[in-house]
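TA notes, week 10

Several of you asked for a full example with nothing omitted. So below is the full record: structure tokens for the whole chain, then the designed sequence directly under it. When grading your own attempts, check the secondary structure regions first.
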């Protein structure tokens, strides 16, 4: 048995993922925000064999991160999260290519980050940043998975901006959230962040594998981790949305 066959044996035992590691090895995924969601999520994607990960974040590891950002430890305090995540992923599988970026502050820096990507995971911790970055993903027609978590609540939605009819039917992140105020900062438990991070990684892998269930296409899932309950809604384009108007035809 080859090393690759052994590494992915249990993943390949799922019929729909039988040859996924070969497909994933050719896949490039961008993760924007490697904190409570993005750190573990990037590690899970690497574990599944995603060939290239591009990690963007300008934050450093702090003591208050460690209860929920499980990729980091005391030895990493003061170091950039992207460098620490790269170190952890290299220890897991040195064959995974990890490229690190600071904050994506303008459309040009985003274009450099996004070139050749198959998907973007947008996991930043402010709504304003998610709105701007989603606009850039839309302009590049990149499939974009957006997740956020606060308190006991989480949100997860896949905006397949690459699909010709998706925008006309389901709109963009700005349709969903542009009129909502910036959420207040709340406390959070480590397992809450970990659960949404795992759900995000699974949705990404199913999409990249071409095996995402139809009922999850164009959907928003809301999580209440205090009761372990979920609600799911179909996304719908907001009439007159300035974010996706020119892409909706």
């Amino acid at each position: 048995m080859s090393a690759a066959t052994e590494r992915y044996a249990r993943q390949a035992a799922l019929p729909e993922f039988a040859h996924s590691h070969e497909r994933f090895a050719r896949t490039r995924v961008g993760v924007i925000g490697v904190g409570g969601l993005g750190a573990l999520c990037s590690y899970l994607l690497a574990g599944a064999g995603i060939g290239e990960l591009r990690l963007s974040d300008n934050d450093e590891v702090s003591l208050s991160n460690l209860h929920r950002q499980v990729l980091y430890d005391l030895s990493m305090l003061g170091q950039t999260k992207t460098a620490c995540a790269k170190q952890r992923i290299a220890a897991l599988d040195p064959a995974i290519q990890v490229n690190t970026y600071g904050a994506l502050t303008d459309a040009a820096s985003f274009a450099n980050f996004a070139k050749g990507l198959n998907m973007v995971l947008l996991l930043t911790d402010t709504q304003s940043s998610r709105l701007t970055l989603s606009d850039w993903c839309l302009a590049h027609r990149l499939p974009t998975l957006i997740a956020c978590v606060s308190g006991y609540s989480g949100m997860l939605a896949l905006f397949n901006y690459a699909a010709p009819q998706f925008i006309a039917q389901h709109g963009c992140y700005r349709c969903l959230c542009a009129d909502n105020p910036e959420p207040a900062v709340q406390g959070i438990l480590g397992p809450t962040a970990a659960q949404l991070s795992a759900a995000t990684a699974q949705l990404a892998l199913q999409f990249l594998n071409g095996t995402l269930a139809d009922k999850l296409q164009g959907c928003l899932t809301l999580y209440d981790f205090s009761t372990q309950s979920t609600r799911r809604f179909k996304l719908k384009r907001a009439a007159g949305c300035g974010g996706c108007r020119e892409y909706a035809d």
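The longest helix spans residues 190-209. Use that as a sanity check on your answer.
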